[in-house]
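Regression test attached.
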Amino acid sequence: MQTAPQPAFEDVLAAAARIAPHAHATPVLRSRGIDAIAGCSLHFKAEPLQRAGAFKFRGACNAVWSLDDAAAARGVVTHSSGNHGGALALAARTRGIPCHVVVPEGAVAAKLAAIEAYGAILHRCAPNIQAREAKCAQVQADTGAELVHPYTDPRVIAGQGTAAMELFNAAGALDALVVPVGGGGLASGTAIAARALAPECRVFGAEPSGAADTFESLRRGEHVTDFVPDTICDGLRGTLGAPDFELLREHHVEVLTVDDADTIAAMRLLWQRMKLLVEPSSAIALAMVLGNRERFAGKRVGVILSGGNVDLDALPW
Amino acid sequence: MQTAPQPAFEDVLAAAARIAPHAHATPVLRSRGIDAIAGCSLHFKAEPLQRAGAFKFRGACNAVWSLDDAAAARGVVTHSSGNHGGALALAARTRGIPCHVVVPEGAVAAKLAAIEAYGAILHRCAPNIQAREAKCAQVQADTGAELVHPYTDPRVIAGQGTAAMELFNAAGALDALVVPVGGGGLASGTAIAARALAPECRVFGAEPSGAADTFESLRRGEHVTDFVPDTICDGLRGTLGAPDFELLREHHVEVLTVDDADTIAAMRLLWQRMKLLVEPSSAIALAMVLGNRERFAGKRVGVILSGGNVDLDALPW
């Protein structure tokens, strides 16, 4: 299934120490208004306030600072036109090493500009998985750069687990913790942290109805990879990673699906009540709570608001 | 010119103690990215995170909790379809007293719904100053409610000064402090606090080019009231108050004007880099700094981001 060792809680602890000089310990926010609407006590981990605007910086930073000096000097490479690309570029900059990002033709120009602004070298390829992997392999061969996969790399998964760790430390005991699910890196890291720090806390994944490969994989008990995503949640269109599938199954993470309309309503509610710019791929976690009120009624619920990289070019002003 | 006594720093101190149990001490936020763009060290007071989403809650809360029990029981009244209306309604709710808000026909439905959601009683009138004042007088006569004017009431001005007080306490010495100017309540309260706490700190007002009555009033040395506002900054369309004019002149507050296009660019920058939902009437303060870089180069500059009540119905989603 997969060959890299699965990360354990010790790896999350080590990641926390490793990224502490570089990453923000983001605040945990509350809203009386949203609590009243949801009928439970919500504790929002505000990762839009993380460097580069998303939790992705945690895993990328842990990977970059896990390298020995010789490997680091050769740089890192990944394929992502989204938050992971920017996060890895900024993490590489914190260590002063090269970062290569393979991006598909047709990716949103504003996102590519953001990745370049963090100092990464862009490599363009055709918009399909074969071209992407071939280009990555070529960059690795040409430069000796180390591949940092967005959600299957165990260093990345361990780094993502630090968000939940901080949330438990700040908010105290939680009955449930809800995170968005795309490739599964955040959900996996969260599950590892929760089992060690709060074994009574249930971990839930929120996944778009239009990209429900994780929901299907867990339901069928086999890794589903053949699907065509159709969702506004651009951060959640990727395919669940193989090690993530194993980790989510092993940790009994429950995944529930959410329609885009409910995600947008939750996003507007977060903007209105918390004044925090969250992207749809984050708001889906609150939408999942609001769509399953009976599951969370009266409980203390943590929600990881994963990022705030909204496409501002879509705004009317 | 005006009969109410002008507020002094003692009144700001008293306001701080009075509102402490009800208002948030909002955080002071930084952004490396925006500092680099501006060429100075910026300290943003995040009033979008204040209750009811704007600094207006400070002044309203101070006014409501300044009333003796008999007056309080009769309630409060104001005319405002914007942030002050919502702020006074919520402040009245913290004391459990009635709040009447006179609103013009044609006001944005979403804003009126927000004011009503805080428990206020709405009174509609024709959209002109005569009808508004007549309706206010009628409500006062009918109910005995106390008028709390949005920016000429000395209790309101003193309350608004608590934002700058908190900013100085959190950020330390500042060379300059920039606030938006509409009716002048925030600028007046800020000037009073700055003179007492940081006499070396210059206070600047940022005003829309399309509603530059304060700029004109200070330039001419006489209170200009005949103008027709034309700006996206809906919180800054009002006319400078008479006591505010005196206070700004007396405290040598310098007002600079900003075009709406620059305000919108600053708003997008704040959304992108700080993930804080600020409204145009707040972003204007950063726009003023960016448009006058030479004035602020290398300095420690405070900026009061006054509110975050963006019209979400204008969003494309």
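Expected vs. actual: identical. The interface with chain A takes residues 27, 48-49, 53, 232, 264, 267-268, 271-272, 275-278, 280, 308, 310, 312, 314-317 of chain B (CB under 8 Å).
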